[in-house]
Sequence to fold (615 residues):
Amino acid sequence: MPDLIHLLPDSVANQIAAGEVIQRPASVVKELVENSMDSGAREIIIHIKDAGKTLIQVTDNGCGMSPTDARMAFERHATSKIRDAGDLFAIRTLGFRGEALASVAAIADIEMRTRRDGDETGTYLHISATRVITQEPTGCGNGTSIQVKNLFFNVPARRKFLKSDSYELRNIITEVHRIAIPNPGIAFQLYHNNTLLHDLPAANLRKRIIDIFGKNIKQSLIPVESSTSLVTLSGYIGLPKFARRTMREQFFFVNSRYMRHPWFHKAVTQAYEKLLPADAFPSYFLFFDIDPASIDINVHPTKTEIKFENENALWQIINATVRESLGKNSIVPSIDFDQEGSIEIPLPPKPGTPVNFPFSPVDYGYNPFREEKSYDPDVARIERQERNNLRNWENIWSGKGNEGESSDNEDPEPGQARMFPEGPTAFGGRKIMQFKQKYLVLPVKSGLMMIDQRRAQERILYERFLEILKTEKVTSQQILFPQTFEVNPADLGVFREILPDLQVLGFDIREFGKTSFIINGVPGVLEASSPVEIVDKLLEEFKNSPVDAHSRVREQVANSLARASAMNYGQELLPNEMDALVNQLFACASPNYSPDGKNVVTIIPLEEIDKLFGR
Fold:
């Protein structure tokens, strides 16, 4: 019987490694840029074509490589960072694993030109699917330029699962942000299809954040600084009023390396407790300078998940530091000891001094909820009779009484104790009641119906906007003062993709610069006090939707716009507004579910209510 166990060929082993390290074009950009930074480059230029599917080129002015190093760099486990196992616990560089270039070479066509300072000629190397095609001397500038062409050309199954160009480009830009933010001293340029997306000159950290996320974030940044024997924590956090409904500007860096850490994220958000709504996230750019021996960065192939030796202590440091920064900038309410304009409180009288207490007559018949300023027995008697009639009407409506029966809880005469609060006033004499400014409650034959007011409006607006998109007929209402806004370069592709449908909906939006747009008009059916906020929320909703933009773009736009335009929880509704909302909801084609499939209406059966009372 033949032996079953054998060694995999290098080409197959490299493809397996590529599955761990190279997940999409953004992974290639990350690995190549990190290698450029480790080479000492002060300027890095990135060219992307077709979201990295056709070409990824990274050029730097680093130290370059010799002909031997250029060839060795594409071998598995080849690195200049590690000599022995002990080096794994003192790593401060980035590209150290020694599998990145070998993995990329296994699934793409690579051309590299590199030259060291002082060498007369450089080296040209062409590798395709792990096989070396050409290696020869060439003329080139100092540093290294690597071109990765036709990614996953020999692994069609992997290429098939790549998403739209806008999605893949957004991931590439996100990776560039994660590298550029902690390295403000390095200049970066990012091109996509020969269009400049980012031009980031060398600067300080604050300027780098503003260059990436736009001038609007400038007034939001609060400095953070804390130094302990365990860690040095620095960076910036955002003002609560600039918090977003989606996570986009949250960054942790450990020794200049980006990381994800949900528990540390909770330490930051808890510092904003009672300053933000539950569904809002503050911006933060926090840097940990820590002893490499106390962390393990080799947990995940992408090296974004890091283990810490003292996580509990770090959690407390993060939370306390963020709270302190908010307090220093007067974000957290504090006691004001300024006495100017305050009421003067007299000193207590000396013992034995007679005290004349002020006297004010009391009108025990006064009702602050009645327009009359004095008590009138005849008026009070009529009002009690009306309330008793209303109670009888409610009993008839609920099937628990007959018209004309007197109520057991008639209003007592003045001076008598009241046993129960006035129940009918909670309904205002209507069938619908708002509960916690979040739900509408109304009795039905089988029990108690509860309606989520925000989701109900989402369903109503969704069907309205979808109908508008189908007919392509909508009036645009010009706004008095046009508003300008900036779109993050990572979102430009997505925004331009949905812009035609926004214009069909009635938004008059035009380009006003490289990443700036101006809003001149909004849909006439949309009541929006801040069109910029609506568009921003719409873009965020559209980006995070699981539906591909090319498949159902109009349904997605209608869904996102409905979510962006719907009322927030906590909004008090008038009785006629509650009536209108319920009537419009049940006029919809699918009133029971929101556009994203969540429940809008639920009924608590009468049997369940009876069980609560032990019946």
